[in-house]
Structures are given as structure tokens and as C-alpha cells.
Amino acid sequence: MPNSTRNRASTGNSAKNSEKKTTVTPSPERRRELLSTAAEVFAAQGYNATTVRRIADEAGMLAGSLYYHFDSKESMVDEILSTFLNELWAGYDEVLGAGLGPRDTVEALVTESFREIDRHRAAVAIYQKESKHLSTQPRFRYLTESQGRFERAWLGALERGVAEGVFRADLDIRLAYRFLRDTVWVAASWYRPGGRHSPEEIARQYLSMVLDGITPREEQTRRDRTQRET
Amino acid sequence: MPNSTRNRASTGNSAKNSEKKTTVTPSPERRRELLSTAAEVFAAQGYNATTVRRIADEAGMLAGSLYYHFDSKESMVDEILSTFLNELWAGYDEVLGAGLGPRDTVEALVTESFREIDRHRAAVAIYQKESKHLSTQPRFRYLTESQGRFERAWLGALERGVAEGVFRADLDIRLAYRFLRDTVWVAASWYRPGGRHSPEEIARQYLSMVLDGITPREEQTRRDRTQRET
DNA sequence: TAACCTACCAAACACTTGTTAGGGAACCCG
DNA sequence: CGGGTTCCCTAACAAGTGTTTGGTAGGTTA
After folding, report:
1. B interface mutation test: which of A109, A215, A222, A224 has the most B CBs within 10 A?
2. Where is the composition biased (Polar residues) (chains A, B) (predicted)?
């Protein structure tokens, strides 16, 4: 594995820089197609349990043919996860740069997260299951970095919220952060695009539970009681 | 894999029943020790990514020696998960049979869950990551069944709660169920026994967020405002 | 037509995987 | 002492793994 002889330079190109680019140039559209099916299989079976033969099978070709488009199985997850995280942070940065208040920030982040789950369900599922032990490899260091940005963004919003009195003062901030983070992302394990609820609808419900709890508030109690008496 | 010849019957026992019991009898304590380290590795690396050589290494022995105690890698996860689920349901059944009201039931289930996480952190982590694709195999059908009991228990408590007015009437019950279930069990991914918070303490915080939300309620707002003005 | 490029196949290679077979050291029991 | 049991090691096997190599059908270009 470490000393895999770099080949495919048989046409005798410039021998100076050992660029990763192969001499052939697969079409980016086909790459995306294959990555999409690969992501689906990874998400369903788990990364390690998925054989490249299975991916090829799902794509209607043989195992070796995948290596015309990608240079390793690892590169596939890498590309799946990194493109997902790039799009995710594009959305997040927009929210974080909008100068919203803490509560609006939290709401916007949650909503944006569910939109990303809607768009990248498979990638999110992979991220959840595999990021922990993938991030130990230097190649996937960006996973750890992303997690750090994630934490700072959420913790910041929560802290400001507590300071401004829009969030409860008796919250354990770090616990609340993990609570929010987890509740949002685990949805990828059961969410199916095109189902009964739109991402925005699910976000609304989640926010309602997280912000106000599942027990009735004063006003709601009064209103419900009135309704029940009629 | 399908036609692995059943051996180890060379001593010529009664040839009638093909019992799984081997002729040798490893000590149950040693089994538990090995299962504990195996669970730790499974939880950290994932089941498929974990080699039996790695487990043996962690246990200070060689790969083949594990097969004196267990007859397959699959048997190890099986035993880890089933003993965990047995203990879990012992606790759950006690709660469910206590005749509590819906809210007390939910509180007791959550608290019990965190106690189980405290005791079986590794097993819970494995259950989360692997149960989905393990449950497709007939050997692990009990995982699916357990999930069904799980769902009925939670949904029942939630429905009764809504009917009695102790939970909000506008809840999407199934969404709330998944919300509760996930928020509780994902804690196993970051929880470390012996940390700052006891299981009961974490359960209290979680319940506080789930039941009352993270925004201040009327009374709290008033009290906090008073405190801040002093 | 000839040269070339894209996208795949067929077949293998090197390695890792779970698992097995036989043996042997330490210990208990008679 | 001698037989038996417990627990592990050494050494291998067969299947499966990711990956590479060379080839080739079909389309495009000149």
C-alpha cells in the first residue's frame, strides 16, 4: 500500500512533477453519476463493508473499470465527503454572516441543515458513520477541522443567546450543543427525500420541540383546555 | 461461508444432535473479558473495519486463540448486542410495568437509557452503527424485534401523554418519537463513564431540554430578570 | 483511411481477511 | 506419577479484498 508504484506514465510525459492527474481525462458528469451510486451504497452498507465490486455492479460495470474514473476507493469517499462539506459550509457561512440574532441564527442553521440533508442524504449518513475513524487519517483532516468550525458556530450562537436572555440561563452549553447537533444530523438516518414532510416542515417541527419543549406552554395549555371543553 | 464443515467432533461423540456446544468449555469470566475488549474495538473502529487480529492484539493474544472462546467474529457481536439488549429490556420492562403516567414514564425511560449507556457504552455505540445492516441477517432478527418493542413503548407513552394533555397536542408523534429516541442514544458516541456528569445528571439536563425547550418559560424569564436586576 | 480518445472489459496480482488444525505449556485431580 | 483439562501458539488455508495491466469496441477528428 505505501509503495504502490505510480504507473500509467508509460507514454513518457514530462517526468518532473509527479502530478496525480492521469494521462486520461474522464468526463466529470460520469464521475458524478458514479459517485452518486457509490455514496448510496456506502450509506446503506457502510464504507468498509462495501466492496468496489458491489459499487461497480450497481453501476453496471466491472470493478476494475472504476479505476478509470477514480484512483482508489478512498478517493471516492473523500470526494463525496469534501464536496458535501463544501456545499454545507457555503450555506452555513451565508447564515453566519447575515448578522442575525442568536435565536434566528439557530433557527436558520437548523433549517439549512435539513436542506442539506435533503440534498446530500447519503453523504450525511456516511459522514455520521465514518467520519470518526476516517478523521484519524491525515487525508481526512478536513473532517476534524470542519467539526471544529461547526462547534464554534453553534457554541457561539448559544452563548450569545444565553447572554441576551433568549436562551435559558441554566443550560449546560456544551450539552445543549451536542443535543442540537445530534438531533439535527441523525435525521439523515431515517429521512427520505420526497416523503411526507419537506425539509422546512421537519425543521419547523424540530425547532418547535427544541425551543419550546414537548410539554404545553402556559398559553397553549389554556388554549387547548378551552378547545377540549367545547 | 455457507458450507463451512462443522468440525471439532473428532472425538466421536454422539452423532445425533449437531449441537453448537464445542467439546471444550472455556470459562465464562474470560469470555466476558474478551467480549469487553472486543466491544471496545468494535465501537471505536466499526465492526467491519475491525479485524479479529486487532481484537486478539488488544487482548494480548493471537488471532487464532480467540476461536477457543468463540466460534466466529459474528458470534462476538451477537453476544455483545444480545446481552446488552437483555439487560436493557429488563430495565425498560420494570419501568413500563410500574403503571406510571405518560410524563413519568418518559422521564423514567430516558433516565434508564442513560444508565444503560453508562453501563454498556460500547455496546450501545455498536448497536447504533451496525444494527441497521446487521438486522438484515436472520441471525440478528432480534434487533428488528427490539426496535419494534422500542417504538411501541415510546409511541404509547407519547400518545397517552397527548391524550391526557401533558404533552403538546400539535406534536407529530412519530417525529417526536424519533427525536426522543435519537437524542438519547447518540449520547453514547460522546459519553465517557466517569466524566463530569453522572448518567442521572445528563438525563436531567436532557429531559429539561426535551420537556421544556431551550428558551426560557414565563416563570423562569421573570425569575431570571429579577436576578439580573439585583 | 489512419490516428486518437473515451470508457469499458478480462484477467490477473498481492495482500488481507476470517478461520482451522495440531501441538504444547501450565495446572488440577486421582 | 500420569491423565485430563484449560488456554494459548504456530502455521497454514481458502476466500475475498483493492488494485493494476493490457487490450479493445466505438466514436470523433483529420
Report:
1. A215
2. 1-16
Q: What is the DSSP letter of B66?
A: H
Structural domain includes residue A34: yes
- Percentage of residues of chain B with pLDDT beyond 70: 84
Last residue of a domain, one of A6, A36, A69: A69
**Domain tally for chain A?**
2
pLDDT digits (tens, 9 = 90+) for A53-103: 999 999 999 999 999 999 999 999 999 999 999 999 999 999 999 999 999
CA/C1' separation A59–D18 (Å): 17
Do A165 and A54 reside in the same domain of the chain? no
Domain that holds residue A109: 73-216
Count of alpha carbons within 13 angstroms of residue A69, beta-carbon side: 22
Find out whether B136 and A44 touch, Cβ atoms under 8 Å.
no
Q: Do A55 and A66 contact (CB within 8 A), yes or no?
A: yes
Give per-residue pLDDT as tens, B105-162. 999 999 999 999 999 999 999 999 999 999 999 999 999 999 999 999 999 999 999 9
AA identity, residue B45 = Q
- Separation in Å: C8 C1' and A33 CA: 16
Residue A13 belongs to some domain of the structure: no
Among the partner-chain residues A132, A178, A213, the one whose CB lies closest to the CB of B212 is A213
A140 interfacial to chain B (CB closer than 8 Å): no
